Amino acid sequence: MKKWLSLLCSALLLLSLAAGCASGGENVEEGLDLTVRDLSPQTSADPAAATDTDSSTLILHLYENLLKWTDDGSGHAVLTEGMAQSYTVQEQNDGSVVYTFTLRSDARWSDGEPVTAQDFVYAWQRLFSMETPPAALARANMVEGYTQAMQAKDGSLLSGVAAQGDSTLIITLTSPCAYFLDTFCAGALTMPVRQDLVEQYGDDWGSDASQVVTNGAYTLSSLDGAAAVLERSETYYDQVSPGPDSITFAWSEGSDADYEALDSGEADFAAQLPEDAVAALSEAGTLTVEPVPSTYALLLNTASEPFSDALVREAFALAIDQEALLAAVGSLTETAATGFVPHGITNRDDQWEAETEETTSQPAADTADSAETGETDVYWDFRSVGDALAAESGEALTAEERAVQAASLMSQAGYPGGSGFPAVEYLYEDTAENQAAAEYLRDTWQEVLGVTVTLRPCTETELREQLLGGTYTMGSFRFDAAYDDATAFLRRWRSTTSTAAGNLVQFADQAYDLLLSVVDVTASLSAREACLHDAEELLMTSYSVVPLFYYGTVSQLADGLTGVYRGALGNYFFGSVTSAS
Length: 581
Known about the structure:
Elements: H1 4-10, H2 12-22, E1 33-37, H3 53-62, E2 67-71, E3 77-81, E4 84-91, E5 97-103, H4 117-129, H5 146-152, E6 161-163, E7 168-173, H6 180-184, H7 195-201, E8 218-223, E9 227-232, E10 246-250, H8 255-264, E11 269-270, H9 275-284, E12 290-300, H10 310-318, H11 322-329, E13 335-336, H12 367-373, H13 382-392, H14 399-412, E14 424-429, H15 432-449, E15 453-458, H16 460-469, E16 474-480, H17 487-490, H18 510-521, H19 525-542, E17 545-553, E18 556-557, E19 561-562, E20 565-566, E21 572-573, E22 578-579
Parallel strand pairs: 1-10, 1-11, 14-15, 14-16
Antiparallel strand pairs: 2-3, 4-5, 5-7, 6-7, 8-9, 9-10, 11-18, 12-16, 12-17, 13-17, 19-22, 20-21
Helix pairs in contact: 10-14, 11-15, 18-19
């Protein structure tokens, strides 16, 4: 049995100590120089420029936030103490929440200067004072003073982030936020920044390696059009844990070139393997697919005929055989979608329990097999919990039974055998994978429902314009996680969200809105997660958003090395890589 957030909240020190014990007391990997193919070309080491997974990966190796990500022992990143040696959480009577962080006394910048609470305050205030604040800052709207600071573009108005002396940082939230710690206290965007250096060199200081001073395990040796070279920091407080002396992020040149570099020994890690390499691993029985928190979904616009009719929407959804769809797509890294929120998104309910005799940190993959052996998987992510709850509700229909029910629903809607059904257009981004999925869907709807669907491939820009315009009839879209929480997928479907703001199918349900409003204010993680699962179920049974498949990826570390671990949003961490021998 494993309780995700209880480990986070009550055993941070134990995890840190355990990691220290495992180090053996000395840097046993002296001389290990690691080269990885993981990132697109980067031009800055400024945390404020960390707008995606690639840029944040670089920042997470150079800087350290109040908390940091460490390996849970199975390749998954979990939170432990970083610059903060401890913290307390106090819920106020007015619903606000006060976090008090105590910084470690041995925290130093790479030039030897102490890391202070004011460095964090300045980092936060600087973000709000930018002419164009980072889009991700919108998720910090629960921080006291957010609205005033954002409207005035004046970080000094952010009253919720304050220093009390050099070693105490106080952050006040106007309401609970379950993802506050991992997104803003361990994330790249709010890493501490030295005010004196920014003022000395200007806002572009992060592009010149000689000007960059860091507080993490590594310093920036060089940054150019070919790579970023990182070297172990001599001032970092942890000088005993094993890991590479240097990490070279050689910019990715595509999966084929990256794998060739790995195969030839030029690189030690490739983040994404090409299809032929994935197929070879599959044939050898050694393929391990890592979940990517992204969902490819069918969209049936409730504001457009004929999909304003719930019976028609349900019929179109039930006609789809996901296994046949995946076979048509032909990818070994995609899996059938069982809900809108994909695998990889954290389950934050520390009270949700699953009886188990043998634990694993992998997502639950086969409930039936687990039942036969008397064992169940550890439900560390939101999707695994949702699948377990769904399995308890009864047996699923077979593909044949679903097809029969779909045809019956069309008859009830007044379109027996597709008679009288208008021709509809299906929009999708023009890729080989999406094309294969579209052709399967078109043929299946013709066969099962007797309807005609015209396919319309689009560029990504054109597709977005059509979907956000709200005048389309049906289409598909890939939804990616903007942050590690189920709300990243579910908030957009509130009835108060316009089509242009993201409610692409114009879904409206009062019960759904109520559940999401509870999520925004409750301090109970159990109640919060229960509301999110119930909300997802309402969305699924509206059949306006029909999840088709989840994405996955396959990475590879060179033989003889071990220690790479991965965050929920796809960040790989290389600071603990050692020789496997």
